[in-house]
Structure prediction request, 309 residues.
Amino acid sequence: MKRFLWRGFVGLLGLWLIVTIASFGYNFATNGTAAPPPGLKYVEAGGINTRYDSWGTSGTPIVLVHGAAESVDTWFRLVPLLAKTHRVYAYDITGYGYSERKAPYTIEHLAGQLLGFLDAMHLGGPGQPRPVLVGHSLGAGVAAEATLEAPNRVGGIMFLDGDGLPLPGGRPGPPSWLILPPYRTSLFRLVLAQGWLLKKIYNSVCTPNCPPMDVDAWTRPFRQPGAEQAIWQMTANGIPAVPADRLAKLKELKIPKSVVFGAKDTDGGNATETATRIGAPAPTLIPNASHLTMLSDPAEVAAAIDRLR
Prediction:
């Protein structure tokens, strides 16, 4: 029995050494980063060098706050529709896209960046127009926290495919053993290299109305310097979100509120419960849509934003 256990131990140790050496080798071979696209615009927002863009010249300002693993570019189908009658702004949340990666990635920190972005765009201050905040998925929590911190600066808020709450059961991020280098680096880069897998995930949260996934456009932000570390830091304790009791304080604010979900969305939470929690009218459910409604049904999302008065 002792000999059997010893052989098992030696075997496991050998396997661990092989996997560890292979992991270090793979990480060394894939250590390059990708250049950001040319022509990006930046502004200081809450002490963070923030990538952003803007469209339109008149009308109520709309600020788009993207979700996890997204960026300014995720709004490309919605923006032309809104810009016809609105001034539209979008920025990359720190930790995602091409903005500076700057911890801590708490919901308060992310809301501070958003409020700093409003400052930079001259929105919501004395004598300035108050914007409507549209937060998708993770962005719903960011928009909610910013609104709770500075309600007089916000003209309205929309939860788009997101409830703003922590993951069910307070579920944390990846297991602690998995976020130890070098294995986390290998896993991160292996996933980024699997275009077929990423397309499968994309198609699972987006209906056939969505445009085909541009793998490079979605993965290039994650090949920027510091991106990997930021992702692990951000997800170690779960997706940043607003506690339910604090989120419910939105009900007390006398500003227009809206909840818009894809009718088939199983990732953003419960639309009806979200509307009740924040004091919004009954939610708008987009038929046959899933979690990425701004890509699958931009006209319906734009119409819902126009109704938010």
